[in-house]
Structure formats: structure tokens, C-alpha cells
Specification:
mainly alpha; 12 helices
DNA sequence: AAGACGAAAGTGGTTGA
DNA sequence: TCAACAACTTTCGTCTT
């Protein structure tokens, strides 16, 4: 198979600092330079069709397949679409009679595509999921997952008595947790019409009813996100991860909120590297209070010897 | 004056009777 | 259903740089 264009030697160098320490970070769906923290590519999602061709014959055959199916469109993108131009394949205007025919076809197409209430509901919900996800810059696989979860909820008749937007927001949160993408309830409620409390309630409801097992978020995910948002150098993030590792070895992380841990660890790392950030700056971005950072910070300093990192 | 610290009271969720 | 509980937040006064 031909090598993909991405793996050429050019793409392996950071356009910002020229370093070749480019790391793929699948968990936050980014390609990041470990030298300076520059995000080379922010969205790793494969936009192509989901098949691969192993020789030219297969390519010939398979290239005739349509767009890949997707769960984000209520009919999985399988239905025919009729464009709104009154032109034929050659770009010529259609004669009057055909024009009327096409108009009728289009009308029925519309009616058939989104037929009953359930379909309409699904169509609305899935567009809502896409809207919110795009606002959060979520990779495509998370949107797909959220769509699947929502479909499941509909199938199990869990929407009754709940708002569509509440359930969609919750489905996105579940999808983020499952895909290991660091997003808080706060993040989601900021771009959705639903408040944090309600998203949380719907989330717990979904998890319970659909028997999902959700692993607790690893603080490491938030470190990456935090350091990027704080525009800290890549080595700060590296040190933060090391501290986190040492802390989890000493069981200092269990039972604690991952955002608080990530914030404290990043705070320490920023001090150790001389790129000091104030508690307030970090608290604001990490969506925790300074007090929480201080508490975690205190615990960490008491139990860890930081000289080894200096 | 900004930032860090810490005490005290309050909040929302979980757990177990 | 309710109280106990842990984690976290809010608020505010004090200390440090």
C-alpha cells in the first residue's frame, strides 16, 4: 500500500519550532509537538470512506460506493437526495414539463424522508447533537457514538418525559467519557441550552437505564487540555504527567475530582519549570476553585519529593 | 497591590439503613 | 425516604512577596 501523505517527512516536523518530537495524541484527537506544545493537527478524524482498497481492482470496484454510512443522520445517510437546481447532468436548464416533475419528486422525497413523529424527533435530535459537538470541537467518532447512544435511548423509550436537548447533551457527555475525550459537564452546558445540573441528571439516568459502565476520567486527559489552554510548553505537560504518575502510585488521586488533580499538578509543573501561572489563572480554566487547587497542592507537596524533577 | 493561604459555612450528590 | 458523609465551592479575613 502507498504510504499516506501525512507520514511524509515534512509533516513530522513542527511548523512552529522545527522540532521532530511530534506526538499523536489520540485521546484528545490532536497531533501535538512535544517541544513547544504547538497543535499541528487538531482533528485526527478520518474523513474518508470506511473501506480500504488493497489493489487497483478493488479501488475500481469500491470507488463506486457512495458516502460512508453514518449514525449522525436520521436515515444513516442512506436515502437519495435530490438537489434543488433545475438542471440536468450537463448543467442545462430543464424543460418546463420536467421541471414540474422534479418539483413533485422533491416534495415527496421530503415527505418520505422524514415521515412520522419518531423520525422527525430523531432528525431534530441528531442535528442538535451535531450542533453541540461542533461547538465543542469534538472529533467525529464522538459524534457518531453520541448518535448511537441517542438512538438506543429512543429505542428503549427513555425520552418520554424528558427534553430532547437534555438527552442529547447527556448522550454527548456519555460519548466523551467512552471515547476518552476530556470534556466536563460544564463544557457541555455552556454550548447547550441545558444547565449543568440537568445534563448531569440526564447523564446518570442514561447510564443507569442503558447499563453503561463508565470508567472515571483520568486526570491525565485534563492535563493535556489544561496545558494547551494555558499555552504552556510541552515539557510542562510532560512533567505534569510525571507528577501525576507519582501521585497515583501513592494513591493520592483516588476519590478526588480529576479536574482538581490536573489543575494542582499543572500548577506544580508550571512552578518547577519557571513558567509560573497563578492559582487563579489555572482555576479559571480548569473550572475548579483556587481552594481546591491549594488542597490538592498541599497533599502532593506533603507526600512527594519534588527535588527529583529539578 | 496581587497572590497565596486557610477557616468556616454552604451545596449537591452518594450511600446505607 | 432520610440522615450521615465526602468532596468541592463560596466567602472572607490574614499573611507574604
Amino acid at each position: 500500500m502507498k504510504p499516506e501523505s501525512l507520514s511524509s517527512s515534512d509533516a513530522r516536523r513542527c511548523p512552529e519550532c522545527g522540532s521532530n518530537r511530534i506526538m499523536k495524541d489520540h485521546e484528545s484527537a490532536e497531533i501535538v509537538c512535544m517541544g513547544c506544545g504547538y497543535v499541528v493537527i487538531a482533528n485526527l478524524t478520518d474523513q474518508g470512506p470506511e473501506w480500504r482498497a488493497f489493489d487497483s481492482e478493488q479501488l475500481e470496484k469500491r470507488a463506486r460506493a457512495g458516502a460512508p454510512t453514518t449514525f449522525t443522520i436520521h436515515d444513516k445517510g442512506l436515502s437519495t437526495t435530490i438537489d434543488w437546481h433545475d438542471r440536468d447532468v450537463h448543467g442545462q436548464r430543464l424543460p418546463q414539463g420536467q421541471k414540474a416533475q422534479i418539483y413533485r419528486l422533491r416534495k415527496w422525497q421530503r415527505r418520505i424522508r422524514v415521515s412520522d413523529a419518531t423520525e422527525r424527533n430523531l432528525a431534530f435530535a441528531l442535528s442538535e447533537i451535531s450542533k453541540i459537538s461542533n461547538n465543542l470541537n469534538l472529533p467525529k467518532n464522538v459524534i457518531e457514538t453520541a448518535s448511537v447512544i441517542y438512538r438506543k435511548a429512543v429505542k428503549e423509550r427513555l425520552i418520554r418525559g424528558r427534553t430532547i436537548q437534555g438527552v442529547t447533551s447527556a448522550a454527548i457527555y456519555v460519548a466523551c467519557r467512552q471515547c476518552g475525550v476530556a470534556r466536563t459537564l460544564e463544557d457541555i452546558s455552556q454550548v447547550s441550552p441545558i444547565n449543568k445540573k440537568e445534563v448531569g441528571r440526564s447523564y446518570r439516568f442514561l447510564v443507569k437505564e442503558l447499563n453503561y459502565f463508565i470508567k472515571p476520567v483520568k486526570a491525565g486527559l485534563y492535563i493535556t487540555k489544561l496545558c494547551n489552554q494555558l499555552t504552556l510548553q510541552g515539557n510542562v505537560e510532560e512533567i505534569a504527567h510525571k507528577i501525576l504518575f507519582a501521585a497515583s502510585e501513592l494513591r493520592l488521586t483516588s476519590g478526588r475530582g480529576p479536574t482538581g488533580i490536573a489543575a494542582a499538578v499543572s500548577y506544580i509543573a508550571s512552578i518547577l519549570t519557571g513558567e509560573r501561572k497563578t492559582q487563579r489563572e489555572i482555576a479559571e480554566i480548569a473550572q475548579v476553585t483556587e481552594v481546591t487547587i491549594r488542597n490538592r497542592y498541599k497533599e502532593l507537596v506533603e507526600r512527594l519529593q519534588f527535588t527529583i524533577y529539578l
